Amino acid sequence: MAIHFDHKPGLVVYLTAGDPSLEATRAIALEAIDAGADVIELGVPFSDPLADGPVIQRASERALARGTRLKDVLGLAREIRAARPSAGLVIFSYFNPILHYGLARFADDAAAAGADGVLVTDIIVEEAGEYLAEMERVGLAPIFLAAPTSPDDRLEAIATHSRGFVYAISRTSITGKQQSLTTDAAALVARIRRWTTLPVAVGFGISNAEHVAQVAEFADAAVIGSAIVELIERSTPEASPGAVARFIKGLHLPQAELAR
Amino acid sequence: MSSVINSAEHSAVAESRPGRFGIYGGRYVPETLMAALVELEHEYEAAKNDPAFQAELAGLLKDFAGRPTPLYFAKRLTEQLGGAKIYLKREDLLHTGAHKINNALGQALLARRMGKKRIIAETGAGQHGVATATVCALLGLECVIYMGDVDMERQELNVLRMRLLGAEVRGVSSGSKTLKDAISEAMRDWVTNVRTTYYLLGSALGAHPYPTMVRDFHRVISIEMKQQILEKEGRLPTAVIACVGGGSNAIGAFYEFIPERAVRLIGVEAGGRGKALGEHAARFSGGSPGVLQGTFSYVLQDEDGQIAATHSVSAGLDYASIGPEHAALHDSGRAEYVSQDDAATLDAVVRLARTEGILPALESAHAVAEALRIAPAMPAHDILVVNLSGRGDKDMGILARELKL
């Protein structure tokens, strides 16, 4: 248990929980872990995902249309934890569903489900007082996003308040833009490392083996979200787990090579 | 270097949170935007204290926008209702047709001062979009306006005006295709282009410093109102009434009266076509505290914290949250918030048009409807000031259909 990247680069996979169904997300997560994902980010679908591009917006709409609720996502986390005890597991959400559920209740239930950490897209460190206290109380790792636009004083606060890993945003953008990596990302990771020895994962716009290899040169892990969510969108529910596993194997991760 | 967080104590962190109105407000945004919000906060503070900036803004408000706006005594309406004297603050007479130009001018000057050449904005009814397109034309700035597909259809005239003024209008087809979704799309643009782009937010909403800054730019409404009513009546009004979508015209109309405890402040939300969630935009009667689009305030939401759909005949009030300063005024009891439904609003449009020869915007007509409701039972020496935030030309399509003109 707990978040760890044994090989470089590690892989963090984001899935919108409940897209296309909770059962499918469970099967996809297990296949992804077996194919080499170190950490699964289980996305709580939200009605107004303002940091996300069209791919994750559509996935959120589909999951909500099927009635996916926060308590269902926590139930799904519990099942994944039971089936894969050593994988990293992060609940990924916008703040309002958690706030409405109740911060303390959420912390208790997420910890009881076996999650390792929580990432809230629209919580910045200045607003995180009560949230950090709750995470600390139940032993969950709060993971903060660091942006290329974050000045050093903000990076220091982000790095010192994060646990598990620091999530470096590859460039100024919403999720899902598929271009080549900019020099922003490497510079940001170097700046983050001045404040922490935590692993640094790079996300936003990572969609293929070439990107992952680039990330390996300067960071500890790559986060893949939209590319996999889009693959799930294009596949049938039955075919999705296999398709995601093949996609991950195609990234040529070192631990995947070892597993063979 | 000083740390963003000054103390390891979580409680101290909580107490240091910026931009709060009571417990409401704050900043709930993706980290990518934080540097821009901090820069904006500092630049705004500097501009606020810069006499040259203030002089340029005052000059444009006077000669370009048409301030001060009159405070008009609605004599025939008052006589018909037989109660309190009704005054109308004529923001509808401003250039571009609504109060929105006050804030658009202020922020556009700020954007120019910050060296940003690309402006983005959201719009619901289109009045903020038109005001933004107008000031961008005036200052030679690139302008992109996000507008929900539903709103583009029902406020088509304003879409055409924005295009004529040189703005690019981008339709938003996600979610409810209204103001909320236009704000989300504008924020996505800003996250992506934050280094070059200024987000000219149109209501007293969003992350700090927007609610404070937008309020400050509309504060001129209540400054004039107070002076004008003292000149005309020698005393303060019994109540100030304003419609509340995000709440920019209302906070501008209320602000100078907040310390005047005897003056009632009445905000009018959109009652829509029913009391069920999804049928209205009455955040205080139907919502609960939550976080939407950067700020902590009252939000219409379901039992899972998903944002609810809203409905109003007026696009400008059709929004699931409300400015955080209104949330604080509501909880403290300093302001009262009521709602008027679509039918009462349409009646108010007709009544004001045929009694005073003034065609109010559907948004502003919600405030008129509340005045029509309460004035008759009030004594004749009482004074109601209604903030007539905009004119109704833009609504002719809806009015033609709804009123079978």
Question: Which key phrases capture this entry?
Answer:
heterodimer, A: alpha/beta, nine-stranded parallel sheet, 15% strand, globular, disordered C terminus, B: 405 residues, alpha/beta, six-stranded mixed sheet, four-stranded antiparallel sheet, 14 strands, 19% strand
Radius of gyration of chain B: 20 Å
**What proportion strand of chain B?**
15-25%
β-strand number of chain B: 14
Helix-and-strand structural type of chain B: alpha/beta
Quaternary organisation: heterodimer
Q: Tell me the structural class of chain A.
A: alpha/beta
Fraction in beta strands of chain A: 15-25%
Order of the strands making up the biggest sheet of chain B: 3-4-14-9-10-13
CA radius of gyration of chain A: 17 Å
Number of strands of chain A: 9
Secondary-structure element sequence of chain A?
Answer: EHEHHEHHEHEEHEHEHEHHH
**Main beta-sheet strand count, sense and barrel state of chain A:** 9 strands, parallel
Distance between the termini of chain B: 66 Å
Q: Tell me the number of helical segments of chain B per DSSP (H or I, 4 or more residues long).
A: 17
Helix content of chain B: 40-55%
Low-pLDDT parts of chain B are: 1-16
